[in-house]
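Quick entry, no commentary yet.
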Amino acid sequence: MTSTTLARKPVRWGRVALHVGCLAALLVMLYPLAWLLATSLKPADEVIASLDLLPSHLEWSNYKTALDGVNDVSIWRLLGNSLLIAGGAVAGNVISCSLAAYAFARLRFRFRGPLFAFMIATIMLPHHAVLIPQYIIFNQLGLVNTYWPLILPKFLATEAFFVFLIVQFMRGLPRELEEAARIDGCGPFRSFFQVVLPLTRPALITTAIFTFIWTWNDFFTQLIYLFDPDKFTLTLALRSFVDASSTSAFGPMFALSVIALLPIVLFFLAFQRFLVEGMASSGVKG
């Protein structure tokens, strides 16, 4: 076979069409982000009136106004409040859901099957159905207008989705490791912390990523429990920014939206390597 024949390989139009379709889908998914970035730099009269993606000139004062804060609360205070709530939620879900998952996946106790089925059934329960009873409980405990209603339930394994996720991962781990640890004198807690928990890292990182994103973007629950502007998060500050003046300041609001988006992107970039490694190794567990 000559070099000329090798050079004339047929064009695989199916592969070309696949790549073009993927690029088109990527542009569609990235357009809202590009629109957000462009709108955050638009003058006030172009945010609503103009349909152009690019602004006529860059209005950097939108970011200056956003960095000044909302309702006399600095943006650093808002950022700290958001990080406190999201960090507490991540710690609570990782600790409590992993313990509950270990009990359902590895331990033998009475009514384990019905209790696990009841827990799975709570996934279908709407969040708004339990919001009023939870509010009444926290109000009677004097915890309304504090961060506890947003963090404390996470330490009680109330997120059945993450419990189910970790249970399914633990069921794929070889039991011989725990049996060997039990022969060496390890009890259930020691086996959990020293044997099972390190192997469950991919599922725990997945839980942490989704918990952080969902908690950071949560608006309704934070609106119900937090009243004082000093306790507001960046999510609540976005809505307050519109009400801070007689005319809606959409430019600074979109600038604050970009700032609020950065921690989510950084958090995902920091842990995506572990997430990919977990997905790649989950198919080769013994």
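second:
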Amino acid sequence: MVNYIEASSAPPKNTGAIRLYDTQAFEGMRKACQLTARCLDALADIVKPGLLTDEIDRFVFDFGMDHGAYPATLNYRGYTRSTCTSINHVVCHGIPNDKPLREGDIVNIDVTFVLDGWHGDSSRMYPVGTVKRAAERLLEVTYESLMRGISAVRPGARTGAIGEAIQTYAEAERCSVVRDFCGHGVGRLFHDSPNILHYGRANEGPELREGMIFTIEPMINLGRPHVKVLADGWTAVTRDRSLSAQYEHTVGVTADGCEIFTLSPAGLDRPGLPSLAR
């Protein structure tokens, strides 16, 4: 049994109930998410061969501080960095360090800022210099998977429709969908209900209702979908060491579809790749 609750009267913890937010909350999420999007835009100018992922982390921290926001990942459940930087076969939660980016790498940069109590959560892939066609194609498939998942969001549909749209497309492109991680409710809490699976069937999962806010963040592999978490307890990698990619948006369910809160104001939702008219 799925319970829905007005967010304004919900307790400040994840109880399993799905929060329904009002127009004032949507405005708060727009501001937080657009700050995150602007930071990801700015990163497009600095990601290049030789850049340390530690430098990316410092950039994100400073950007947040300069705009009155705090990185949600910093000290979250023992995580000590302001962002996640996941390179090549790292699926997610890569920890910034003193390793430089190399020509031909692909890197996911995941940023969540807390602004006035609202969490703006988004990530993008960045090609480092010139990448091989296989890597470029993976970025294209992963971004399209995200947008197809978003296109399935509307009141009355179920969360499974998002997963089905992503899985059907990605597998038709001979890629695989990671099943170990998922999207999630977001708002006043960093991680909330419901979980948004990136695979499944359209008639499965909770019903989508106006006022829900959540992330969609498919992780797509060139090889098999299986992953493992390294000894640091955070870094997830593909078991077959195939390339992995991820794009993430935060969306809110509206009366006739959804609003993408984290769209790039500069049109850089897929930095390093041609812009797409939608």
